[in-house]
């Protein structure tokens, strides 16, 4: 199905099932511990052996010699695979650094061997006996030091490196009010609960992998490419994923090493990345240095806005597109953005929840708050004054929907923003200095092809199959809701099978594109199935009504189950998009309001209240969507206050590489949190009229926290995370 | 994890004797720290002596009105004990500020005292660490040292002791009871239990090889307002950047011990004479020989400010 024109009324608009806060249909599996996660799939294949990964002990250099004798002689060891014995390996299109290193070492904890043994304990013990002599090279590990030796990248996503409209330089200099500030964001880890994990089994030259992966088709394709085997010979299965946040978008070392280990051992092998390897072996959100310059009139209207960002990555890696939102969020006739990329020898940087906007909004929305200080205008009012209903770089492109102003106003009213004291450091509650902060939320909506297969059986049951994944987001549920709405059956009559490369290729889960696109693909397949059914029953498909488990036209009604007849009826289709994404700018909007307390003595920062108001198209399932947003808000608090992969610039690694050292928020950090969605349907986005929402929730949160800290204390911190040591010297002693 | 042999000890004396006669043996009780370290092969004992069967899980009143806490009393139980809550509030508060409910259910009194540092370089076997591998160097010096010690450090090690419980016990003048391999017992004032790193940071206590902690005794209650204040980046489940255990009496006298600043709970009795002069005077004495890094210099003003807040809370 081609989606070329603004959606009109369709069966989804009935909202009998869609739009309801349905609990997750796979929830009971998860709460009873019976959802099959990758590492626990003891049932799928017999005789599983265990692989344990050895990570490189240096940040840059090469292996001079490997001695495997002791490890091979250890109890239970079946085989050990290194680059020497792996055979010729290619590299996936979406991998920058090789997943199996040696002799060259690209980064710390790059996998250099997998030890396979009969038990996990044997593999782990033997892995410690692998003796490797390294020759350390001179690595580049310091982004700030490389700031002047950068290149202009050619990003594959996020638009060009540089954009310019009007004459930024002149307009900035001429502006009566100017802001010129530099912000830094640190490297961050996904820190999902389930590590990367895979079981691989060979049957002749056919490979099956049970894994934890957000993008099944990418994974299968890159696995085939890396091994140099036909794509048809690789099957990836990933029905449940214990968190990904972008860390599982790609083929990673667990998959490759399980496959290589299984081939060498001649039996199935399972591999999970041990937690201390997660942060340096896999990908992370790259650190940024961001310079923002804004020129404004005294009434607050922006006349010039410039955003430059520096990030680093391994050779062939991509930049963090932290300037993305600045191209679209605020009006202003004269504009520039610039993205620069340094080559670093740290682990590979890549997508993490809202790549680009998450880091960019951390800086931009502090900058707006700093402009507020210079202008003496309310932060909500200033943002509203600079709203735009068109893409500011291409004014002929309208936003399909843009309710930023409504989000800000609604949030301000609900949060009690009018009670905020604009003068910092004035509000006291016992030992706490109290402040409020606001930030806009912005994240683009991405549309991409997504296919599904729908089957109707003789019992009137509908089964959906697609390689879409559920990374904890609720994909199972919204896909079931879509099929139920389309076929006119109750939710219990719908089965959903996901995450298998044997199924039609979906959009996958990432970039908050999963919800809208995968359900639109199911819409397309259901539309086709409706036509098939109508035809078979002799109905005019335009007139046939699918409701209450029956097909009706005029005064004739046939139970859906009868349509299947002797065999199942099957339809497969995909949603494919025309030019609407070019002619319109599709984005999602919101406003974050945060109240913090800062301990007057210790400068400890604790969030007291949070509210997000979001406008993101039709909300297919308000319960699932709310969970996504409050989870993202929590992650935003982590970004604001604690998350920091600390680089040891001598040894070239992220030092705090476990969950004791890399802190993320705990329950006690999130006392009162709420979010609401504004009513919105976006007929430009898809027949579902929905958009992404899972990443909108993180964009802007950290800046709202930072702005609240400033309001509480008068201290402006421009280097994330905002920790007490950065406030202490500026706070008066009681 | 390396293979190891295992036995369940039947008496404290037998446990200590076995530990002295078996090469590379370790005691295990809750295992909340040791097992993690064994999985990473930071600890590689050849033999484990499980002491959980020893009847050391009681809290008894002593003849002089104090409490004798068995070595195996779990942190959860100790924190909840009515007598501890009533008479030794600083200890109960310190325990509840540490770890998580699940860990406190397993962790024992003696194990808590003997837990090892959380320095990230100690945990990464690819990197130098004099505590893990004597003579290899200290990666924390010149590296990431925001969590590290600011006083009592050496050129070999700047690690901290991570316990909260031990800081409160130091303020309470607890005494550690042990049994030695030859069956004799002794009492070690807690001030003398932990060592500073000097040039041998791998040796963390004054316990002799095989010596087993059997109990911790608290002297009779000294009253006062008892406060434990733990400063950290997140609200729970994090090690202290700085912590303060204080017992403040109505006359303004008192005791102060600090966590997160040294290789051991940090108390300087002479500094307590300065209490009437306020936090600044006290911390000036506590940190007279401080040696901070760029990353952890903030701990000095933080300690002073935290102490000031605690003294205010204590009514001093």
TrEMBL record, chain A:
UniProt domain Aldehyde oxidase/xanthine dehydrogenase a/b hammerhead: residue ranges: 32-138
- Write out the GO MF terms: iron ion binding; oxidoreductase activity
> SMART domains per the record?
Ald_Xan_dh_C (SM01008)
Q: Which Pfam families match?
A: Ald_Xan_dh_C, MoCoBD_1, MoCoBD_2
Q: Lineage from the top down?
A: Bacteria, Pseudomonadati, Pseudomonadota, Alphaproteobacteria, Hyphomicrobiales
Name the record gives this protein: Xanthine dehydrogenase family protein molybdopterin-binding subunit
Give start-end ranges for the coiled-coil region(s): none
Automatic annotation (TrEMBL), chain B:
* Pfam families in the record: FAD_binding_5 (PF00941)
Under the heading InterPro entries, the entry gives: CO_DH_flav_C, CO_DH_flav_C_dom_sf, Diverse_Substr_Oxidored, FAD-bd_PCMH, FAD-bd_PCMH-like_sf, FAD-bd_PCMH_sub1, FAD-bd_PCMH_sub2, Mopterin_DH_FAD-bd
Q: Which residues form the signal peptide?
A: none
The FAD-binding PCMH-type domain covers: 1-223
> Which keywords belong to this entry?
FAD, Flavoprotein
Q: Name one GO molecular function term.
A: FAD binding
Q: What SMART domains does its record include?
A: CO_deh_flav_C
Is the keyword Cytoplasm assigned to this protein?
Answer: no
Q: Which Gene3D superfamilies match?
A: 3.30.465.10, CO dehydrogenase flavoprotein, C-terminal domain (3.30.390.50), Uridine Diphospho-n-acetylenolpyruvylglucosamine Reductase, domain 2 (3.30.43.10)
- The name under which this protein is listed is Xanthine dehydrogenase family protein subunit M
Q: Could you tell me which species this protein originates from?
A: Bradyrhizobium uaiense
């Amino acid at each position: 199905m081609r989606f070329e024109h603004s959606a009109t009324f369709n069966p989804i608009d009935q909202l009998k099932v869609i739009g309801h806060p349905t609990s997750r249909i796979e929830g009971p599996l998860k709460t009873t511990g019976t959802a099959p996660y990758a590492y626990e799939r003891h049932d799928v294949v017999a005789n599983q052996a265990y692989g344990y990964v050895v990570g490189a002990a240096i940040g840059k250099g090469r292996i001079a010699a490997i001695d495997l004798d002791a490890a091979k002689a250890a109890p239970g060891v079946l085989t050990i695979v290194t680059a020497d014995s792996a055979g010729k390996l290619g590299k996936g299109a979406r991998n920058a650094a090789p997943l199996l290193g040696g002799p060259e070492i690209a980064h710390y904890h790059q996998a250099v061997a997998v030890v396979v043994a009969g038990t996990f304990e044997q593999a782990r013990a033997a892995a410690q006996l692998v003796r490797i002599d390294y020759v350390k090279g001179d690595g580049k590990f310091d982004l700030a030091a490389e700031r002047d030796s950068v290149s202009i990248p050619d990003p594959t996503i996020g638009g060009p490196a540089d954009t310019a409209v009007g004459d930024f330089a002149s307009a900035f200099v001429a502006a009566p009010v100017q802001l010129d500030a530099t912000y830094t964001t640190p490297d961050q880890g996904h820190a999902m609960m389930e590590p990367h994990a895979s079981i691989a089994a060979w049957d002749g030259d056919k490979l099956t992998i049970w894994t934890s992966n957000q993008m099944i088709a990418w994974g299968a394709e890159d696995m085939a490419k890396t091994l140099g085997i036909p794509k048809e010979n690789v099957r990836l299965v990933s029905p449940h994923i214990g968190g990904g946040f972008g860390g599982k978008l790609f083929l990673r070392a667990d998959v490759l090493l399980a496959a290589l280990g299984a081939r060498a051992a001649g039996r199935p092998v399972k591999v999970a990345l041990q937690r201390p390897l997660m942060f340096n072996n896999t990908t992370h959100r790259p650190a940024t240095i961001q310079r923002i310059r804004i020129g404004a009139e005294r009434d607050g209207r922006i006349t010039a806005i410039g955003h430059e960002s520096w990030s680093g990555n391994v050779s062939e890696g991509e930049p963090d597109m932290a300037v993305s939102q600045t191209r679209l969020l605020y009006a202003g006739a004269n504009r520039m953005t610039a993205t620069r990329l340094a080559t670093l020898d740290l682990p590979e940087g890549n997508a993490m929840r809202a790549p680009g906007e998450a880091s960019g909004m951390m800086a931009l929305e502090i900058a707006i708050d700093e402009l507020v200080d210079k202008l003496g205008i309310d932060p909500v009012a200033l943002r509203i004054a600079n709203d735009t209903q068109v893409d500011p770089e291409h004014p002929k492109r309208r936003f399909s929907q843009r309710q930023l102003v409504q989000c800000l106003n609604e949030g301000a009213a609900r949060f009690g923003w009018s009670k905020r004291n604009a003068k910092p450091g004035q509000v006291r509650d016992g030992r706490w200095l109290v402040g409020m902060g606001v930030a806009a939320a912005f994240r683009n909506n991405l549309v991409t092809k997504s296919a599904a297969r729908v089957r109707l059986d003789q019992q009137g049951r509908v089964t959906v199959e697609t390689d879409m994944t559920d990374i904890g987001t609720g994909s199972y549920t919204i896909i079931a809701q879509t099929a139920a709405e389309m076929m006119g059956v109750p939710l219990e009559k719908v089965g959903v099978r996901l995450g298998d490369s044997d199924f039609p290729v979906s959009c996958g889960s990432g970039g908050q594109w999963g919800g809208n696109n995968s359900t639109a693909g199911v819409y397309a397949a259901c539309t086709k199935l409706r036509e098939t059914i109508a035809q078979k029953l002799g109905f005019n498909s335009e007139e046939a009504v699918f409701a209450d488990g029956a097909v009706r036209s005029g005064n004739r009604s046939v139970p859906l189950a009868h349509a299947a007849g002797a065999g199942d009826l099957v339809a497969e289709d995909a949603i494919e998009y025309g030019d609407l994404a070019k002619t319109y700018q599709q984005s999602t909007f919101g406003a974050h309001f945060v109240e913090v307390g800062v301990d007057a003595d210790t400068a400890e920062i604790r969030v007291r209240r949070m509210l997000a108001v979001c406008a993101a198209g039709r909300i297919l399932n308000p319960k699932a969507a709310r969970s996504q947003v409050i989870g993202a808000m929590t992650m935003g608090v982590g970004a604001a206050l604690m998350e920091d992969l600390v680089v040891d610039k001598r040894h070239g690694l992220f030092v705090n590489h476990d969950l004791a050292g890399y802190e993320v928020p705990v329950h006690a950090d999130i006392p009162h949190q709420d979010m609401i969605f504004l009513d919105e349907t976006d007929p430009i986005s898809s027949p579902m009229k929905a958009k992404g929402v899972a990443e909108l929730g993180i964009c802007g949160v950290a800046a709202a926290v930072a702005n609240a800290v400033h309001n509480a204390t008068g201290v402006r911190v421009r280097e994330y995370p905002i920790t007490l040591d950065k406030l202490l010297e500026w706070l008066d002693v009681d | 994890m390396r293979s190891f042999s295992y036995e369940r000890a039947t008496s404290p004396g037998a446990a200590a004797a076995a530990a002295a006669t078996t090469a590379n043996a370790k005691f295990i009780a809750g295992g909340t720290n040791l097992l993690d370290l064994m999985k990473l092969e930071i600890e590689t004992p050849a033999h484990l002596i499980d002491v959980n069967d020893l009847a050391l899980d009681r809290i008894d009143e002593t003849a002089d009105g104090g409490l004798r806490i068995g070595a195996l009393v779990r942190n959860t139980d100790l924190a909840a004990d009515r007598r501890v809550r009533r008479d030794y509030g600083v200890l109960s508060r310190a325990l509840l500020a540490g770890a998580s409910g699940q860990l406190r259910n397993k962790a024992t009194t003696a194990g808590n005292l003997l837990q090892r540092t959380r320095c990230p370089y100690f945990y990464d076997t690819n990197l130098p660490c004099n505590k893990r591998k004597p003579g290899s160097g200290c990666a924390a010096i010149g590296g990431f040292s925001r969590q590290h010690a600011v006083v009592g450090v050496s050129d070999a090690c700047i690690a901290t002791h991570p316990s909260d419980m031990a800081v409160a016990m130091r303020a309470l003048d607890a005494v550690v009871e042990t049994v030695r391999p030859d069956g004799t017992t002794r009492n070690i004032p807690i001030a003398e239990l932990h060592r500073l790193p000097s040039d041998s940071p791998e040796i963390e206590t004054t316990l002799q090889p095989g010596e087993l902690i059997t109990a911790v005794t608290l002297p009779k209650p000294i009253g006062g307002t008892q406060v434990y204040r733990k400063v950290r980046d997140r609200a729970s489940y994090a090690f202290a950047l700085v912590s303060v255990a204080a017992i403040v009496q109505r006359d303004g006298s008192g005791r102060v011990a600090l966590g997160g600043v040294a290789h051991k709970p940090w108390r300087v009795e002479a500094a307590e004479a300065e209490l009437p002069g306020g936090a600044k005077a006290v911390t000036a004495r506590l940190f007279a020989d401080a040696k901070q890094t760029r990353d952890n210099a903030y701990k000095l003003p933080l300690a002073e400010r935290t102490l000031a807040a605690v003294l205010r809370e204590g009514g001093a």
